[in-house]
Structure to design on (391 residues):
């Protein structure tokens, strides 16, 4: 029997525009629940979470999932959804703001102007002095290096080209789809060092992984073009702060614009630090909420997976009203055991799709007749099957 209602726990502030897409007849939204079917969140730390037996999906209204125990959930066959690209415009706009803040010395000029005192004549004289002191540079013709060419990195590349900049990109994990979406005017760097050698500005748009943690360090900074500006609107942990401070003090880096303040960076005169404003727009929050809710609903109601960080994308149109979905370890003969178990129960498979991603695989099966609960139990008992349910 398919479940009639789903209990959804919502942590953090998820836009009402997204939550409104959960029909009240099918979904019950809670601030807390011991046995939820779904968890929706933004920045709440879930690493101490012990998933209940009822948990079927976790949805992050944002791109990064380093606050979610993805490995632990994968062992239970629970997909973790995120919303890549939903906040790309918001971050792109802030990167442009960071470029302008840095190249035109706006932050320093603003602080200078706010400190002015005296008569109109005295302030006018000080303004003219500051005009010379805070003269900046223009962006056309400058080279920007973009590390990470996902939805945000590609969006930044597009606007920088429109601003007349030359764009160099580096992303060893660039997908075929991403490459098709990237302008042919973006020059490719084969390494982070090559990227940093040629760029007047270097901006980072990579996820936090074992390979990106601390990627901006003493070694990579040694390749930085003298006088370049560093922008980090990705994750705090990709930067080794002490190395950046040394590069700023030595003049290798002209300045840094970051969305992730630390005590050392806040105090440095060549750092413009913002309070994690990257995706903090009403539009971005709404886009993320709508996207994650729609993905979770499609998974719960139809078994389809889109934008999961641990399972493959698997989307199959309904071929019959009877559908079974199975998450399992990606090991030999798993599909054969699933098919055999269903055949032994007298079930005729109308349509089937199976996809794998790393150590995990996912199967959607439509049948010509109802699937008994005892078949689901027999499938779940197969070694390597992580979860199975009717949708």
């Amino acid at each position: 029997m398919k479940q009639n209602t789903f209990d959804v726990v919502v942590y953090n502030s998820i836009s009402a525009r997204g939550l409104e897409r959960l029909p009240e007849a099918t979904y019950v939204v809670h601030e807390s629940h011991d046995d939820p079917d779904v968890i929706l969140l933004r920045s709440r730390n879930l690493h101490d979470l012990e998933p209940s037996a009822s948990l079927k999906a976790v949805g992050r209204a944002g791109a990064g999932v380093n606050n979610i125990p993805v490995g632990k959930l994968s062992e239970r066959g629970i997909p973790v959804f995120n919303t890549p690209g939903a906040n790309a415009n918001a971050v792109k706009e802030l990167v442009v703001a960071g470029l302008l803040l840095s190249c035109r010395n706006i932050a320093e000029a603003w602080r200078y102007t706010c400190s002015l005192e005296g008569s109109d004549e005295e302030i006018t004289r000080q303004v003219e002095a500051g005009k010379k002191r805070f003269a900046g540079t223009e962006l056309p013709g400058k080279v920007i290096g973009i590390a990470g060419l996902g939805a945000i990195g590609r969006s930044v590349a597009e606007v920088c080209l429109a601003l007349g900049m030359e764009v160099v990109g580096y992303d060893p994990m660039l997908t075929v789809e991403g490459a098709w979406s990237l302008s042919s005017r973006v020059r490719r760097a084969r390494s982070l060092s090559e990227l940093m050698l040629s760029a007047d500005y270097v901006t980072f748009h990579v996820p936090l992984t074992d390979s990106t943690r601390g990627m901006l360090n003493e070694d990579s900074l040694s390749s930085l073009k003298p006088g370049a500006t560093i922008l980090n609107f990705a994750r705090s942990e990709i930067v080794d702060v002490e190395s950046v401070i040394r590069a700023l003090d030595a003049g290798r880096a002209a300045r840094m614009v970051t969305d992730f303040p630390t005590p050392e960076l806040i105090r440095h005169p060549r750092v413009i630090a913002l309070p994690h404003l990257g995706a903090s727009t009403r539009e971005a929050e709404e886009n993320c909420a709508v996207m994650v809710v729609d993905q979770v609903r499609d998974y719960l109601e139809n078994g389809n997976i889109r934008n999961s960080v641990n399972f493959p994308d698997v989307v199959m149109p309904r071929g019959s009203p009877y559908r079974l979905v199975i998450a399992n370890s990606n090991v030999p003969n798993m599909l054969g055991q699933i098919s055999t178990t269903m055949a032994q129960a007298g079930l005729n498979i109308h349509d089937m799709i199976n996809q794998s991603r790393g150590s995990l695989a996912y199967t959607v099966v439509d049948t010509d007749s109802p699937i008994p609960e005892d078949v689901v139990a027999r499938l779940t008992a197969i070694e390597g099957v992580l979860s199975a349910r009717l949708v």
In short: The chain has three domains: 1-87+280-311, 88-100+137-273, 312-391. The first helix runs from residue 16 to 19. The chain has a mean pLDDT of 95. The radius of gyration is 25 Å.
